[in-house]
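Dear Dr. H.,

I hope your travels went smoothly. While you were away I took the liberty of generating a structure for the chain from your last submission, since the lab meeting agenda had it listed for discussion. I wanted you to have the full record in hand beforehand rather than looking at slides cold. The sequence, exactly as received, is reproduced here:
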Amino acid sequence: MTADKPSNTLDPIEHLHALIRATADVLNQIEQLDACRFGPAEIVEAGVADLHESLHALDQLGPKAGLPSLRALHDPNASGPDADLANTLAAKVRLNLKRIREGSSALSLEMRRLLTDTRDVVSMATGSAGTYDMQGRTTSGQVRRTRGVV
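The corresponding predicted structure, in token form, is as follows:
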């Protein structure tokens, strides 16, 4: 009878494969959120929740969960087939992490732009200070505010 490995100890190659899958899932969630950013709020909220879940799963494969960091999983100076495979897999993980940083930065910027546009539309529709409708009202039922001192 063989003893099972504890859940927090993985073979380095298995761990790198798990990191590749987890980072690819995060990238997929970022792309899906980017694709639905113009959709209804419920869809955007669901996309954010899915992204949060993927990030949590990725976090569980790192030092916070008691697993080794990416640097500890491979030795760039080692040689042999396992070392070459580990270096290749670690390079893929690093590439995915770079794409996650770039994608999340671009998505964050786009979401901020959408928020600013939405605030501008709401401001114009409700009549912020200095924005009046044809009857001189700032919002429905309000009369124009007095300007200046009389």
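Two observations you may find useful: The CA atoms of residues 7 and 67 lie 10 Å apart. Residues 12-111 form one domain.

With kind regards,
E. W.
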